[in-house]
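Ticket closed. Logging final result for LisH domain-containing protein ARMC9.
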Amino acid sequence: MSGSLSSVEGELNAIVKEYLELSGLEDSVRCFEEECQRLGKPIQDSAGTFQKDGRVRKIQNELFQHFDEGRRVEFFSAWDSYISPEVREGDSYCQKLEFQLHVHFAVFPIRKSNKDVIEKSDEAMFHFRYYLDTQGSCLSQIPEFLTYYALPFVSTPQSHQSFKHLFEESWVPELRNRLETFLWEAIKETTQNSPQPRLVQLYQCNDLALSDARSEAQSAERRLQDSERRCMVQARHLVKLQDDCEKLMKVTAELITALEAAVKGDMIDLDKVLSTCCQNFPDLFKFHHKNRTSSDRDPTVSSGSYTNSASRAQLMKDFLQQHSMELSDSTHVCLDFSKMKTDLVVQDARSKTLLLQALRWRLTKTQPGEERDAVLSSYINNDLLGCEQPSQYRQRVLHMMRSPNKNLHQALLRFLNAFASFSSARTYLCKCPQLLAILQDNLINNRVKDSISQDMTLGIMQKLSLRHSLQTTMIAGGVVEWLVNTLGKATETLSDYGLEYGVALLMNLCLRTAGKKRCIDMAQRILQLLVDLLKLQNSEILPYVNGTLYSLLSVPEIKNKAQEMKKVVVIS
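Final structure:
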């Protein structure tokens, strides 16, 4: 007998014995064993065990390599291939482990000191948030996972009390050990549950390696089918986009015709233009077409003065030119800020309103990037709002925030809301504490008389609440209590814009310990408010409601009150 055959003879005999046993040929098994013993031929006790164990080890090594290197896409692609859907959907231990694995990949970039890896932290948190809103939503009722639903909303989780344990040296090895144990049992059980003897597998597949290749091919085929389904969805989406594009071309043609008429000085029937737009995009234009009143028009234009948007655009351009030091062929205009600041003090209310709108348009209508950064820097470097140091000019600007002229008041708030959208602008505004004091006083003491001003005020305060010092001022000033009272009747007093920014502001304040303490005395009211907001099924406010809820439930007193209320909150 050749040496190559003798090295595998025991395994081959074991394969034959296994086939005879599974076929119920007991006499043949007995005769086979006796003859092998008489001839001195070995029968290996665990034929196929080493090959199966080797396959499990191969799968483990592949997953661990992705795990250790933070390759989320590759890991979960292999995870879906090797772990059956029945186990992932029916085994609670597997679901909890998968949740922890998503947490691991979400914080992985933050653990690394490499700059290139850290830049991917926002993307990792985005994918984790998507997982929470889809597959992970079914675990929102499990208390041990509630805290993690606030993780995407915390800027520095490594220093947050609820998430510091994720960055301890012991957390990753413990998760790795749980993953290793689960993979060994799950994959090995799958391979051992095969009803066919090894001899049949060899007949059908020639070798176990080929069987693995066939299994991988089947998995690839399933992924291909999923890709084809997604492709069909995207194809339908593309058809819809093409249809919308055709409608948009019709609207564009109508608007260009109206613009050409305006340039020639002809009167424009704005209702007719809106009617045409409404026919092509009814969901987008029907509200403006049916509810167009004097308050919906641009507050900088008095009734009857200007009949079309072309005139208003030209008016804004004229105002910028009046305050320009020089004009060039480029869109960038160097402004005379000294003259502009003088006009913001001495001109009449209508001129101030027009100037503020022109400044806002100059900031919002420029291309994002260097051009917009240049405009923003020019406003800050020239101290447009007088925030750098106390002065008479600052007081005059702040006085406009309580102007009895509604159009001027709204124009300033609109400008501040757009201006506060930028980080450097928020740093600049923080130098003027009186600004927040006036905004807060107007809001809490009901000095805001119209919904637009209230929306803009909430938008400004929400953006300023990203600053630690201003958060402290808002909490001490009773903004949390005002929000709870106002959001409780949101459908009556707030627009969709105001509701979104109001809930976002409440979440920002409740992430602070001082904000949580403010909520203890009104725990039942605020918990009931959050439950009611969840019932609105508003996808825009849902993340902020979730963030507020999970933050407050970390306070024992509020958590006990929630248990007393016996409410089950399901976050979809």
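Confidence is low (pLDDT under 50) at residues 286-310, 325-331, 567-572. No further action required.
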